[in-house]
Amino acid sequence: MTSYSRITGTGSYLPPRRVTNADLAAELATRGIETSDEWIVERTGIRARHFAAPGAKTSDLGVHAARRALESAGKQATQVDLIIVATTTPDMVFPSTAAIVQHKLGIAGCPVFDVQAVCSGFIYALTVADAMIRTGTARCALVIGAEIFSRILDFNDRTTCVLFGDGAGAVVLEASTAPGLLASDLHADGKYLDILCVPGHVAGGQVTGSPLVRMDGQAVFKLAVRVLGECAHAVLAKAGREGDDIDWLIPHQANIRIMESTARKLKLPPEKLVVTVHEHGNTSAASVPLAMDTAVRAGQVKRGDTVLLEGVGGGFTWGAVLLDF
Ligand code: UT7
After folding, report:
1. What is the distance between the terminal CA atoms of the chain, rounded to a whole angstrom?
2. Model-level pTM greater than 0.85?
3. Ligand 1 atom closest to Cα of 254?
4. Burial grade of 233 (CB within 10 A; 0-12, 13-18, 19 or more)
């Protein structure tokens, strides 16, 4: 009987248009908004991000990442029996982006759905897929984080528009007799909904309220530092492991200062921290699988390594997954 799930392949995709801080600063200057490469690098660690072309869809990014993950796992799309897409920027109100990804992959029949936990979405989706595999509901899942966050950015608000980017990451998660995913720790507290949200909704054929990101950066920063430390320790305790056992920390890529603070709390040297925020910006639900695939393809994360994944974001939501790769 199957007892565990294990990641057997990873993939990711970045839209071709790379926008440096200097490019963005020049674009914002045309609107009379002042920012600089120095400010963005010093406060966040971000140097560039990728923005999707106007006609691109979140499902397109997800499909590219999914195909690469399937290829690295040596699987055909027809062998997939579950698709979960974590996204905050779905193609449509409905159906789910996962249904569109399924169709674009040329398959049909298996269960598919989206998970909405904003920047923690991939951690939530991976936990759900793991549970479905361990109960025998699925044997070969595609778990995808995909976002076109640039579509919900307010390019008149320099406190948010410099932070985010577009992209997608995916993993193939398969039933396994050996672990795999060791433990997961998920949380949310809706009382913090106002500090990071897109408050608008569709009603009567129109968007009511703002359809753009609003964030109290300092409040998010403080909360993120606290909860990422807490859930890292919680997931280690659940798995019966110590901080020393971690080979790689792959946290949500939002701000290098938050990431380094989490590494310090775990007494991890900086070399064990996977950093892609400088090149990707904050890609919300895509950030963790994008960073993971980047680290795998760079030869950093290797088979057998113990990896701590962490997410934090709107909701407020946060969580961690500990796994043996
Ligand atoms: O995925 C969800 C997770 N989200 C996050 O993790 C975001 C968490 N928060 C942060 O990363 C940081 O709070 C920010 C990067 C958003 C802001 O950094 P900060 O060190 O907290 O800066 P601040 O908000 O205290 O702003 C400092 C100054 C302000 O000017 P004054 O009031 O001191 O004159 C801002 O108006 O920096 C100004 N500022 C900017 N200046 C140039 C804010 N944005 C910019 C900008 N360029 N883009």
Report:
1. 21
2. yes
3. 6
4. middle
Domain boundaries, the chain: 4-176, 181-324
Instruction: List, by residue number, the catalytic residues.
Output: 119, 252, 282
DSSP string, 175-236: EESS-SEEEEEEEE-GGGGGGEE---EEETTEEES--S-EE-HHHHHHHHHHHHHHHHHHHH
In the predicted structure, residue 153 carries a pLDDT above the cut 80: yes
Residue located via tokens 């050996």: 178
Looking at domain 181-324, its CATH superfamily turns out to be Thiolase/Chalcone synthase (3.40.47.10)
pLDDT digits (tens, 9 = 90+) for 31-47: 999 999 999 999 999 99
Mutate to test the pocket of ligand 1, among 38, 118, 159 (most ligand atoms within 8 A of CB): 159
Integer angstrom CA distances of residue 294 from 42, 47, 274, 306: 23, 17, 9, 16
Distance, CA of 267 to CA of 247 (rounded, Å): 12
Tell how far the Cα of 81 is from the centroid of ligand 1, in angstroms: 43
Contacts of 93 (CB under 8 A, 6+ apart): 202
CA of 158 to the centre of ligand 1 (A): 8
| CATH topology (fold) of 4-176 | Peroxisomal Thiolase; Chain A, domain 1 (3.40.47)
